Amino acid sequence: MAKVMDKHEIESKTREYAERLRDQMGLQHRATTPFEKPFERPWTKAEIETTTVLFGGLTLAHEELTANAMRGMGYKIQALPVPDLEALQIGKEYGNRGQCNPTYFTVGSLVQYLKKLEAQGETDIEDRYVFVTAGSCGPCRFGMYEAEYRQALRDSGFGRFRVLIFQQAPETEQSTEDTALEFSAKFGLTLLRAFILGDMLNELGYKIRPYEVNKGDTDRVMAEAKELLGTALRESKSVFLGLRKVKKMFNSIEVDMTRVKPKVKITGEFWAQTTEGDGNYHMFRWLESEGAEVLVEPIGTWIEYKIWIARHHAEKEFATNKDKKSMIRKLKLAQIGFRMWHNFYRMALGFKTDPLPNQAKLAEYATAYYNTHLGGGEGHLEIGKNVMATKDKHAHMVISLKPFGCMPSTMSDGVQARVVADYKDAIFIPIETSGDGEVSARSRVQMKLYEAKKKARAEMDELLEARGVTIEQVQSYVGEHPKYANAMWKLPEHHGISSAANLVAEVAGRVK
Ligand code: SF4
């Protein structure tokens, strides 16, 4: 009977074999030292006043609001600049081969920032700054981010720099009773509040900007609204009342909703569909400049998905493990609570922003194509959103933005071919963002956008004919009724997909 080798024998034989191969190929012998997670100095409460927390990876609105919420909890905090191509290069220089590109962008962005501080003559950077980010055990390469940060920091000369990981913090040696950053319920709820508000401001911006009459109004009001809500978060004032004021501020923007624009839904990998810079070729602003109305994805959808998927797994296990009952109940309540909270803030904005998509429906739409128990990245969401956008007439076109080398999103792309075959009307384009290749990516999107524009125009022509009015009559009627020029007027969903088509359906009867 063959002898079973233990782990050490296997490792030693593997090493011997590698040495033999190197000999045969005439290569030099080399000693390799595998990277090991270093023991990290804790960040203690006594250091809160002298240390700045760095973070990043969200939209500008989310980052500004999150920073203010954290300041309200007594932290000094600074968002990193939006990662650019230089950050990507730095990330590649210090990172391992074969990572997906958000790793390179985000790791590079941190090293880039620290090097700039150093160049400006800052001292004691490793003591005076810490970096906080989300961690994960996978199943995709998200599980590698923590190690990549630590390795790149060590190799770029910041070996003592501290990286604080939430999700895993309570189990790691970073946590002690004296830890400065407590991942408590209060901390979590504060971040959630900032995320919901960031989602709402972004949605208002992308909904209103394409129709503003005076260019620049929306960006100006966005900046004022971020300031106002940021102050509310920092000073623990009522966010609901803050949102009421934000509604009035946006209402001062004059809009022309008769402009026919295709709606372009953004989906894809979390970071690629969130960042507002080189990481996705500045896709959202560029689409607007090309005449589209962009439907950005709220972070809230992903948060609710995380609750939903935990419940989904627990429900599967319930058949064999009745102890899961209370867990399922808690997760149901968490989901209901999160949606109620979201709707409460929508109410303050006169329901101008959309409700979160129904997770059960997304799963139902995706289930014919994708196993909803598969994790990693956005799981089945990319498929569900594409089907929903087409079947429920939410958008004329869907773009899936995914970073170079993203494993879960590439799997989804394979499946999307089948979705597009089943939904003949679907205009879908996957864009892999690699940092370079911007011109070719944009030109591919442009071709699909042309189809989407034609679709939006045809939809409008059919509607005008069916209702027996002309666009000039509608424009004249709208011009005489100022409420239709108010940016926060809630356009009822009537017919078709474009905002202009909904407006025509709303007023056509009265025009005649
Ligand atoms: S979802 Fe894709 S891009 Fe994001 S961490 Fe995972 S593998 Fe990387």
Main traits of this protein?
single chain; 512 residues; Rossmann fold; 3 domains; 4-stranded parallel sheet; 53% helix; binds iron/sulfur cluster
Q: Which helices and strands occur, and which strands form pairs?
A:
Elements: H1 7-24, E1 52-55, H2 60-72, E2 76-79, H3 85-94, H4 101-119, H5 125-128, E3 129-134, H6 145-155, E4 162-166, H7 185-208, H8 217-234, H9 239-251, E5 263-268, H10 283-289, E6 293-295, H11 299-318, H12 324-348, H13 359-366, H14 381-391, E7 397-403, H15 407-422, E8 428-433, H16 438-467, H17 471-480, H18 499-511
Parallel strand pairs: 1-2, 1-3, 3-4, 5-6, 5-7, 7-8
Helix pairs in contact: 2-7, 2-8, 3-4, 4-6, 7-8, 8-9, 11-12, 13-14, 14-15, 16-18, 17-18
The structure holds iron/sulfur cluster.
Residues 100, 102, 140-142, 269, 271, 377, 403, 406-409 line the site of iron/sulfur cluster.
Describe the structure.
The protein is of the alpha/beta class. It folds into 3 domains: 45-183, Rossmann fold; 188-256, no CATH class; 278-298 and 356-485, no CATH class. The protein has helices spanning 7-24, 60-72, 85-94, 101-119, 125-128, 145-155, 185-208, 217-234, 239-251, 283-289, 299-318, 324-348, 359-366, 381-391, 407-422, 438-467, 471-480, 499-511, and strands at residues 52-55, 76-79, 129-134, 162-166, 263-268, 293-295, 397-403, 428-433. The strands form 2 sheets. A 4-stranded parallel β-sheet has the order 2-1-3-4. It has a 4-stranded parallel β-sheet with strand order 6-5-7-8, with helices on both faces. The termini are far apart. The model is unreliable at 168-173 (pLDDT under 50). It binds iron/sulfur cluster. The site of iron/sulfur cluster (SF4) has 13 residues, from helix 15.
